[in-house]
Structures are given as C-alpha cells and as structure tokens.
Design goal:
Elements: E1 2-8, H1 12-25, H2 30-33, E2 42-48, E3 51-62, E4 65-73, H3 82-96, E5 101-107, H4 111-116, E6 120-121, E7 127-130, E8 133-141
Parallel strand pairs: 4-5
Antiparallel strand pairs: 1-2, 2-3, 3-4, 5-8, 6-8, 7-8
The structure holds coenzyme A.
Coenzyme A binds next to strand 4, helix 3, strand 5 and helix 4.
C-alpha cells in the first residue's frame, strides 16, 4: 500500500532519496541540493509498505503561488505514476496553504512529464542552467472548486 506523509522541514527519508537521486545519480552538489528553503518547506514522502519511494517539497513563493521542487522517485519505482501521485499531494498541500497557482523549475528533459501533469512552459521559453543542467520555469493554474451557497465551511 502506498502512503503519503508530510513533514515541515526536510526529514531523513527525503534526504535519503534526494541523496540517491540528485546527488549520486544526477551529480548535483550538496550545496545546491540543500538550500535555504528546505527548513521552511512542506516535504512529502511516499512509502510503499513503509519503504520510502518518492519525495518532493512545496513552499509559498507568494501568498497565491506554491513553488514545487525536489520531486524525485527512486529509480526502481519510475514509470508507474508514482511521480504523478507525489505531485498531486504537493498540489493539494499548496492549495491548503491558499495557493491558486503553482510554479517549478523543471530540468528541461523532464518538462514532458510536468506537461502531462498540467504544467505549461514559461511562454518566454527562457532556459537557465543549474550546475550545467538546463532548466525551464513551468506554471499551472489550479482549479479551485467554489463552495455552493448551501455548503458549510470546514
Ligand atoms: C521525473 C520523475 C519524477 C517522473 O516520475 P515517474 O513516476 O517516473 O513518472 P510517471 O510514471 O508519473 O509519469 C507520468 C507520465 O509522464 C511521462 N514521463 C515521465 N518522465 C518523463 C520525461 N522525462 N519526459 C517526458 N515524459 C515523461 C510518463 O511516460 C507518463 O506518461 P503517460 O501518462 O502517457 O503514461 C522521475 O523520473 C524522477 O524522479 N526522475 C529523477 C529525478 C528528477 O529528475 N526529478 C525532476 C527534477 S525537475
């Protein structure tokens, strides 16, 4: 069974996955990987039968915009919609924080994945580099269901 847990501040299970994926597999340095946002982000970890398989984080860039990042699925679990599932949890968390929009910096060769999840590339098309890896900003406007007049507030 896949279970999602949220943590405020980066938990050890997220570090384990990020070290494996971003540092070892992709070669990012620790100084770049762990930044000033980490202690103030909500981090999600997905567990399969208690084994951590994916992580990601979100913080409010401004009161309306959730900034998603560090989305990583362990290699053996890719291609099974785990990334999509983790992203959905982050979107829901962003909504609960009051966000109406989402942004993220995608590695250019991952943009297709985010497009399948409803994100659109920065219309300027501007590409920037992080440690030599090309990235592009991507955005999504979330659908917010309006409460009907006869529905009670939570
Ligand atoms: C990118 C990543 C999170 C995707 O997670 P995943 O669980 O493998 O992806 P999913 O199975 O949810 O894929 C959903 C859809 O996106 C597609 N997709 C996945 N990776 C893709 C890519 N790099 N380019 C284009 N499409 C991609 C899948 O084929 C699937 O398409 P479908 O709906 O038509 O079947 C995962 O590959 C990963 O962790 N990579 C290493 C870390 C990383 O680079 N993170 C992103 C940093 S920006």
């Amino acid at each position: 069974m896949v279970e999602a847990k949220f943590y405020f501040g980066v938990p050890q299970d997220a570090r384990t996955i990020r070290d494996e994926v971003f540092t070892l597999e992709q070669g990012f340095s620790d100084d770049i990987e762990y930044d000033e946002h980490d202690p103030e982000c909500w981090h999600v970890v997905l567990y399969l039968d208690s084994y951590p398989i994916a992580t990601g984080r979100v913080f409010l860039e401004d009161p309306e915009t959730g900034h998603i990042g560090r989305l990583a699925v362990r290699k053996a679990f890719r291609g099974q919609k785990v990334g999509t599932y983790a992203l959905k949890f982050l979107e829901t968390k962003a909504k609960s924080l009051g966000a109406r929009k989402l942004m993220l910096g995608a590695q250019l060769d991952k943009a297709g994945f985010y497009e399948k999840c409803g994100f659109k590339k920065n219309p300027t098309g501007e590409i920037y580099e992080e440690e030599g890896v090309p990235h592009i900003l991507m955005f999504k406007t979330m659908k917010i269901r309006k409460r009907k007049a006869n529905e009670k507030a939570d």
